[in-house]
Amino acid sequence: MLTHQRKNEILARLKREGQVVAKTLSECFGVSEDTIRRDLRELAGEGLLQRVHGGALPASPAVADFAHRQGIESETKRAVAAAAAKMVTTGQVVILDGGTTAVEMARRLPRDLTATVVTHSPSIAVELINHPGIEVIIIGGRLFKHSIVTVGTAAMEALSHIRADVYFMGVTGVHATAGLSTGDLEEAYMKRALAAHAAETVVMASSDKLNAASPYMIGELSLASTIIVEKSTQASLTEPLAAAGVTMVMA
Description:
The protein has 2 domains: 3-57, Arc Repressor Mutant, subunit A (Orthogonal Bundle), CATH 1.10.10.10; 66-250, Rossmann fold (3-Layer(aba) Sandwich), CATH 3.40.50. The protein is 37% helix and 24% strand.
């Protein structure tokens, strides 16, 4: 079997089975594990999969910057955001992540809601200007322009005195065993810190982020108490997450 044929078969198995194991592929194709690891490395370099210890997982498709993602109108995004907004109740202290779905959620918070929103996203803060009952606390730090959020030591330090009721998190990868992940190391640290300062974490994700992984791990799946996805999501994607003890909300 030629190299390109083997790679195509690896991708086909990954799509069909949700993950591949280097040792199993080696035995199946009759080649060394070093050869398989090289194939996986090259496919990962093309953004076609995400390497993990012992094999690979599907790569998250969420790689575009904020401006590009903001221009994509999505019924899925609006449905997930609307479901998340309904979870916020009067008097809560809420941490709201950055990202286009979080901005959409902020737009859907009731104008008469009385609550406190803590955010490291200037975009979220601007969306809440016309909500008179919502107190907005902005976490400062270095601006990560890709997602328009603050990160770094200053942002982490600003969290030290905050204890929130709930954190609404955005991710680029959700996997039953590989956990929650994102595409930037500092963002991963920041999201983990935000989750540590909330009583519970709700993840907002589209179905294409399920059973997928990005390079930087935010935490185990157990970090999330609830995951919101669109109602059309296939059961094969949600069942492993529900089996792991996470509440699935179909928006």
